[in-house]
Write a structure and sequence with these properties.
The chain is an alpha+beta fold and 333 residues long. It has helices at residues 5-9, 13-29, 66-73, 79-91, 112-129, 188-194, 209-213, 221-228, 267-276, 280-286, 302-310, and strands at residues 46-49, 54-62, 97-107, 132-140, 148-159, 174-179, 234-239, 256-259, 291-297, 317-323, 329-331. Helix 5 links the parallel strand 3 and strand 4 (132-140).
């Protein structure tokens, strides 16, 4: 099998999957006999049982090599939004309402100006997600870090009888896609490799390329929490990150998904593919391709769900349906 473009750029999805499997296996070997863990590993967030009625949802994630672009441009005021988004968008996927987050900033050398700019983004992200940043850690790791790394951990609360796991999804249930704001925070190693040599000031996409690459990850919490509080039967929630629409398979549903009417693909993805001739399948494996979040609802609630979601995202639309058959995502559109 020929090496794919992402691997040539420096990231092996296969190696990452094997490493995660090894890590999970080691952790499982030492799991307590009476665990408070509610969900199996592999969901967007996990839930710890607090009591018989309430669970705490937890997730951790970072911004990745999008930070390299921020360093190139000397602009750090947006990556905090990305850090918040990558965490809260996962926590809400189990039906939880995100409440608070802590951040972790690892640096080669502490810089007050850069830290302050990152803080501006974190504060803006918290405002958009309606959470608090209640603490964090700054570590100076000059022997390990060349530049900096930014990550966070978010927690939320959920009633255990209101968990959204995907288990209730049935064939015929609509999959509603919410538009992304661009690359979000995934696939930047391949994106940067593909765009190498193009000045950050290049405006072929209608504005400077650097601005397009630093466009913050969309935060979907407000409309999703609103939908969860409504009468709509929400059966599955999927944050579309690395892995593309195959992230739907992380839901606990014994169905496949047929995607026949995908959302429009933003020009940045088309440019990346044109410059390096990345195959369609790999593009959909690495990037969100214009769909940043998916909502699966009962077929009878499709109209009401679209009405509510379009109040925040006019471009929200049914992109496909759950289908009987093996757990796979089939793209026909």
């Amino acid at each position: 099998m020929s090496e794919d473009a992402y691997t040539r750029a420096g990231v092996s999805q296969g190696d990452a999957e094997a490493a995660v499997a090894s890590l999970v296996s080691a952790l499982a070997a030492s799991a307590p006999a009476e665990s408070r863990q509610v969900l199996a590993s592999g969901h967007y967030a996990n839930v710890v049982r607090l009591d018989e009625r309430t669970g705490i949802a937890l997730s951790t994630d970072g911004v990745g090599t999008k930070l390299v672009v921020a360093e190139q441009l000397g602009r750090w005021d947006t990556v905090g939004i990305d850090c918040v988004a990558m965490n809260v968008n996962d926590v809400v996927c189990v039906g939880a309402e995100p409440l608070a987050m802590v951040d972790y900033l690892a640096v080669e050398r502490a810089d007050a100006e850069i830290a302050g700019a990152i803080g501006i983004g974190l504060a803006r992200g918290a405002e958009l997600a309606r959470i608090e940043i209640v603490g964090g850690e700054l570590a100076q790791l000059g022997e390990l870090i060349n530049g900096l790394d930014l990550a966070g951990t978010c927690f939320g609360v959920v009633a255990l009888d209101s968990l959204v796991t995907g288990a209730a999804i049935e064939p015929g249930d609509p999959v509603i896609g919410l538009p992304s704001s661009g690359l979000h925070s995934n696939g930047y190693t391949l994106a940067r490799s593909s765009l190498e040599g193009i000045p950050m000031e290049d405006e072929r996409l209608g504005r400077p390329l650097g601005e397009v690459l630093l466009e913050p990850t969309e935060i979907y919490v407000k409309p999703i929490v609103g939908l969860l509080r409504s009468e709509v039967d929400v059966r599955g929630l999927a944050h579309i990150t690395s892995g593309g629409l195959d992230n739907l398979l992380r839901l606990e549903a014994r169905v496949g998904y047929e995607i026949d009417d995908p959302l429009p693909v933003p020009p940045i993805f088309t440019l990346i593919q044109e410059l390096t001739d990345v195959p369609d399948d790999e593009m959909h494996e690495v990037f969100n391709m214009g769909c940043g979040f998916c909502v699966v609802v009962a077929a009878s609630d499709e109209g009401e769900a679209l009405k509510k979601l379009r109040a925040s995202y006019p471009g929200a639309t049914r992109i496909g349906r759950a289908a009987a058959g093996p757990p796979q995502v089939t793209r026909t559109g």
